[in-house]
Fold these 3 entries.
Entry 1:
Amino acid sequence: MTEQSETQQRPALVVDFGAQYAQLIARRVREAGVYSEIVPHTATAEEIAAKNPVAIILSGGPSSVYEEGAPRLDPAVFDLGVPTLGICYGFQYMAQTLGGEVANTGLREYGATDAVITGDGGTLLAGQPAEQNVWMSHGDQVAKAPEGFEVLATTEATKVAAFANEERGFYGVQWHPEVKHSDHGQRVLENFLHKGAGLASDWNSGNVIAEQIERIREQVGDARVISALSGGVDSAVSTALVHKAIGDQLTAVFVDHGLLRKGEREQVEKDYVESTGVRLITVDAADTFLGHLKGVTDPEDKRKIIGREFIRAFEKVQLDLVAEAKASGGAPVKFLVQGTLYPDVVESGGGAGTANIKSHHNVGGLPDDLDFELIEPLRALFKDEVRAIGRELGIPEAIVGRQPFPGPGLGIRIIGEVTADRLEILREADAIAREELTKAGLDQEIWQCPVVLLADVRSVGVQGDGRTYGHPIVLRPVSSEDAMTADWTRLPYDVLSKISNRITNGVRDVNRVVLDVTSKPPGTIEWE
Ligand code: XMP
């Protein structure tokens, strides 16, 4: 648990009332150039004050304020003198706590709703269209604003859809300004932050880099540091950031488990090393991994084996480096870099008093006799911020712009046993799909597009003059904001057709391409 802030910056605090929106709000606040952090609603006023917040935003939540066990916030938070914005449940909670009234009138609003601005709209809504489309999701209403509050907007079902007490710096909206479906949502947040709370827009990737470099140098001193590169965005950026801070005190390790995509190893060994100057050791472990995967078809078994072998391969290099440092009398190897991101910290209960939902291990367990301290330079950041920093550090676009790719790699995209031959087939098909999606300019539209080989399935086909009996390839293009939920992407038919033609004509043993049209839930993004 960390009580202190993740950075030197004073944060705008987002109080999480249990909605899935808290992280989205925190991201939107940062998009407005203001550093933000999330705290659970169980944090006391004292704990909140200790973070020295410049603003507070109360998130939405699934409950009714008068329900027994509904999430509460220490009312003393309203006495801290910090500008506060309530959203949805947070708006109702604010209304009730400050002496207004919340009622269940039986009038619910879900989805797109028309909000009408009353008067000049105050700090939050001034200068915006008198009628706007906003995204609602509530059963209760604020029936009466607290004493001293002015009503700023109404809807057909809600007489008090937004309010403010400008003098005390209190604001609230019933709708969700953080979702893109609310027409002027981002402006509402910006008005609150910049005008209501008087905050400058000064949180950007340049500041983060400078601050982290200073922090890393202080933490590391003259010790040596190891980092595991996976080819993915997070490890590439965290490694480059640490390298920028301490240069060759850092050694990066890249385990080639043979389950990589076409060109990935070259990308890391050549392009990444050239652009960053990082000293890299590659471990050639493809044969070992394939040996252990022989005859294995169960997805969980595959995942366990790949995870275990990864740790073994990485451990071996660690031990070698530690021994080498000892033998040469050089500085000891004391630190390990991890690309932990802010959503991992929040979900692992990193904030004061948060429940531990799930623990994340990016590198896995370390052997007992190696006592490393962790360096986690991305702990305060969201994925889009990590990409921006990677670009600023000069990492090639092919790496910072990469789709998410699972740790177990192509091993969990072959349904059936993983063999060198099958990997070769999948690698070719995957490369074609990626190339065509990029060529069609669709990389921004999709979150990722796993390409899956149904190695244990065969179907009859006809190619040239002959009958074929080959395998199907599945395309799984998905759109998502955070991979927790996803929808299948409606790719243009001509792009699908191009991919299908190229794969069936150019990849041996594949005579059929099929499209996965399942959302998540119920289907996960990966097939295994
Ligand atoms: P699922 O398949 O659960 O995946 O919908 C959600 C997101 O996580 C990625 N994924 C992984 N990433 N190690 C990782 O680092 C893994 O073992 C792993 N399994 C799935 C997946 O690609 C998607 O982006």
Note: Residues 413-515 form a domain with the GMP Synthetase; Chain A, domain 3 fold (CATH 3.30.300.10).
Entry 2:
Amino acid sequence: MPKTSVSSLLTWLDQSPTPFHVVLTAATSLDSAGFTRVTELGNELPNLGYLAHDGCIIAWRLGSAKGSLRIIGAHTDSPNLRVLPQPDIHQLGWSQLAIEIYGGVLLNSWLDRDLGIAGRVVDSSGVSHLYSAPQALARVPQLAIHLDREIGDKGLHLDRHQHMTPVWGSTKQSFSQWIRKVTEVADVAAFDAHLFDITPATLLGVDNSLLASGRLDNQASCWSAIEALRIASDSDHTAILVLNDHEEVGSNSATGAAGPMLSSVVSRVSMQHGLHEGQQFDRLATSWCLSADNAHAIHPNYPERHEPRHAPLINEGPAVKVNGNQRYATSARGLAHIRSIAESNDIPLQTFASRNNVPCGSTIGPITATQLGIEAIDIGMPQLSMHSAREMCGAHDPLHLVSLMGAFLQR
Ligand code: CO
């Protein structure tokens, strides 16, 4: 077991309501482990360093010119509700906020929750300021059962536009006034404002063996990767960690996995190691990327949704994800590599494959493999309720994931 504890994950989750805050939390953790922030790639890279931009952070621990690359990737974003630029709605005695649904939200899970607001404002000079207001500010109220008699037979039907609009007061409110007050920035030119459930992350269960929180997909992987990089020892291999934004909406952005940030850092590292173009190609051919994004644990109430021989159990370790149609990048060679790492370090490891009639999502694994021409392995910590406002995983699995990632960086 690594010298880390799951309580640090709980703190991380509470401090990170948006991708911008994930980057800040990760950077703070790296700072305390002796990593240096760089703002440009033009200068000599420090041995332990990181580059952060908006919702993406890339950190590295440089190895030698003869070593190859061990990359770990995860994503900083989670499905949520986001306040639109002109949000004020005043009707029927209510103040409401116009919102946009980001990613594949489980809509029902956002009903009747006390919601805070966090994000960043950009001032008139273009400078970003992060803010977080973890108070009960807004709520998406569910319709009473007496006014929805069909709900029992037909189920809950939510119109994505009409029914997800939160209330945030019974007096006339101005969002721009509120955000100026809460951020103490006088010249707010624009903002990002994400709603989030203010209930703190917690251990759960009579045996405290479970963990409930928002944004476990995929901040549990982000936290594990940062912990693994912090405690890694020096190696000939260069360890690179990339936490990308916008995975939940397809990864096509400057800070997403299809953007250039990772490949820029990889080229810069090779340049510093004095490798010419052919040698850079050879290095990539012997390098590995571990793409971490949570997996679906088998659900006791819906076991039929799983391929029975490839259904991960809770608290039995991370699962390698396999999909021949390349929704996941893992090949037989990748599976053999990660299995051998897990076995030689006594780390439990499972395998996930989806049923042919329940297609799986994708991850940044295949995208990174395509961008860099590097072999990627998809793994994920098992969880339930993926994309709910309040997800759940095993309390022991994050530590198994840190162990696996740490061993991956050394091999
Ligand atoms: Co995910």
Note: The longest strand covers residues 80-91.
Entry 3:
Amino acid sequence: MPEAAMSHSTPQAGEMPEDVLISVRRLKKYFPIQAGWMKKTVGHIKAIDDVSLDIRKGETFGLVGESGSGKSTVARLMLRAYDLTDGQILFRGGNGEVIDLSDLTDRQMRTMRREMQMIFQDPYSSLNPRMTLLQLVGEPMLIHGVGSQGEIRDRVAELLQVVGLRPEYINRYPHAFSGGQRQRIGIARALALNPSFIAADEAVSALDVSVAAQNINLMQDLQEKFGLTYLFITHDLGMVEHISDRVGVMYLGRLMETAPTDQLFAKPLHPYTEALMAAVPQPDPRGNRTRKRVPLKGEIANAANPPKGCTFHPRCPYAQPVCGTDEPALRAVAGGRQVRCHFAEELTLTGVTT
Ligand code: SF4
């Protein structure tokens, strides 16, 4: 990896630019593959391999990629739902202090979770059907010992209003609500402890398009109102283009490209990004017809046995012999972008707005 790129993508421990809320550095998560009755470790699934990214205060960072690319694992590692195999996660707490989450014990991490929350994909299974809205939304406050019973009730009523639900619903159970409303209950719960960072994992993927759009608008309003920072994980490129300030593209546990959203969609620098964009039908800018969808060639490789060299090379239409032997590094390029391709400067790739 060139020196300049190295220093851009992996700054030293403890250093974090003032405008960054959370920074992951050289993050790795390997899951052991066990075999036989002795459960001997015979290999590892490299679910996340050397991911570095910064998310700035108040921005929405979109993480895209096919199923199996590792994007949800990155979010779970950031919130320490999984232990890291290696790497570092730096987070700027409410008092401005930078905390290395990778070193925290479970107990210390529980305190940090007041500032970091997650919204899950499935609004049906993520809410306990036996709990009322008061219990569901108030539970984080109860767990963290925040407020008396009366204060929790008032706060839950306020949060229901904030997410567009009537406070009178406070004693109802989730089954009385639609999928979109249940997702709003999940958002209210995530907001209960005034977090600064929310990771939304395919948060609106299970919803109808119009309901999803309403909830996305709600999330954008809440971001402005409460100064929230979002990590928005989705396989939906249209959604990510709409909501994100910057985007990271993941493939087989690695970041292939990061860029400001408009630049990424106008001019992708990585062949995988181009292929993802081509796989979504786009309106033809010259008329009302839809530009043809070009399905992505082949399947995502096995993370237990990734291809040598560039992990994307078996599917890449631009692959050269070196791509099968030498793994490209994620390196900084002009415009505050990063790319992991030997030939990024030589290729002229097609975006969706060209
Ligand atoms: Fe394609 Fe080679 Fe670039 Fe990988 S390094 S994306 S195989 S051109």
Note: The first strand starts at residue 20 and ends at 35.
